[in-house]
Amino acid sequence: MKVCLLNDSFPPVIDGVANAVLNYAENLNEMNDTDVIVGTPFYPEGNYDTYPFRVIPYDSLDTSFLTGGYRAGMPFPVRQISEMASFQPDIIHTHCPISSCFVARSLRDITDAPVVLTYHTKYDIDIRNTVPTRLAQDESIRALVNNVSACDEVWTVSAGAGENLRSLGYEGEYKIVVNGVDFPKGRVPDEIVRETVKEYDLPSDLPVFLFTGRLMKYKGLPMLVDALRMLAEKEDFRMVMIGQGNDSGELKQMIRDKGLRYDETDENGIISSHEGVEKGKIIFTGPVWDRAALRAWNCRADLFVFPSVFDTNGLVVREAAACSLASVLIRGSCAAEGITDGRNGYLIEESADALAEMLEYACRHRSELKQTGEHASDEIYLSWQDAVAYARKLYGELLEKKECGCLTGKKRMADDPLFEMTAEAAMKYAQISETDFPYLEGMLDNLAEFHQKRREKIVSELKESRKELERYLRLLR
């Protein structure tokens, strides 16, 4: 079986979905009966030749100033679609309903391979936070749902993710296909843990709480700051925050306003301290890219704190479970699916008071936390090897449906002609003789230079618009 994986992020970008696609590719590539390629937007710092499988990067636009480090893939990269088509995939699996799905739909028109889409996250929240006007937000969400509806099969990573997709207007069927984690089950040796955390102020007699992920307010972090301020009135502790994000500066200002102490690590690894109340300290490590080091941090902590109702799956909760680390989660959130309160994790209501009360309990019952963490390891851990093996089984079932004519057929959408035209262009590109390439390459270089100037102009105009908007918002305040 030949599988083409597509996503709008892939290393060097490190996020939950990029990590998922990387693990899909690695595990599929290790199967004797499966071959895999990956298509993803190009990043200048990407090193795409180092993988044991082929990665095809396609043209992208730098939108990092709007999106916190992400580039936007160009939706109709004819040359790269032609390259992917030459692979002759049996399955096209896109992990994002935006530009990757555009590529998938065009590729399907050439290869007739069914398209699977995994819905990983609540994209509508990111759209609301990034796109400036309500009308543009609504149109973006409508286009997203249109892309999802055009796929042959839809998977969601949790029941909550499916409910979110339904709330946006999606009316089709979906399957829940849970992601795995790439941490091996078990704790790392104590000496490795000590070496990893030695630069930080972590007294052995104090409880250590841990959060890993993007430092964004919609992950419940303002509520966490409020809870830590309440806790500091009664208990001493350390709260370790691993990650980066657009809201990190605002969160640190909240911490200063609350009078809490915190340490932060700059890009050169230098730790600076900020004084506050006597008890409690928050430690910002910055991003930790090394997976072994991140695993060591999970082994050092007493409790993983994840107050997000945004995340649809919460891989970090399963990563913690791999290290026998229990989590405290918001009752009813997607990340809390599969958690039994007091057995393999802790569930609270979505309030600073409830979180502060739970953290105070944790400070006084550290031995119980260990037992709960062991139950989490036994009951909610899922390896990527097992998760991808299940996905591979579903691929086979989908192909059987196609062979017997049981697929309902791709859904006809109003924008289908656009993808059909792209597919036709990609097929013609593949038919061009080698003698034509020098002339065509010259044309493409000229076009690339033209589009680069256009991109630079667009980016400049977007930056100016953002400055005007910020000035306007300051006046409103």
How do the strands and helices of this protein lay out in sequence?
Blueprint: E1 2-6, H1 16-29, E2 35-41, E3 54-58, E4 60-62, H2 64-67, E5 71-73, H3 78-86, E6 91-94, H4 99-111, E7 115-119, H5 123-130, H6 134-149, E8 153-156, H7 159-167, E9 175-176, H8 190-197, E10 208-212, H9 221-232, E11 238-242, H10 248-258, E12 261-265, E13 271-274, E14 281-286, H11 291-300, E15 303-306, H12 315-322, E16 327-330, E17 346-348, H13 352-364, H14 366-379, H15 384-403, H16 416-431, H17 437-476
Parallel strand pairs: 1-2, 1-6, 2-3, 6-7, 7-8, 8-9, 10-11, 10-15, 11-14, 12-14, 15-16, 16-17
Antiparallel strand pairs: 4-5, 12-13
Number of helices: 17
Radius of gyration, in Å, reads: 24 Å
Number of strands: 17
What class do helices, strands and sheet pairing give? alpha/beta
Question: Roughly what percent helix?
Answer: 40-55%
> What gap, in angstroms, lies between the N and C termini?
58 Å
Which regions are unreliable across 5 or more consecutive residues at pLDDT < 50? Answer: none
Mean pLDDT metric: 88
Largest sheet: 8 strands, mixed
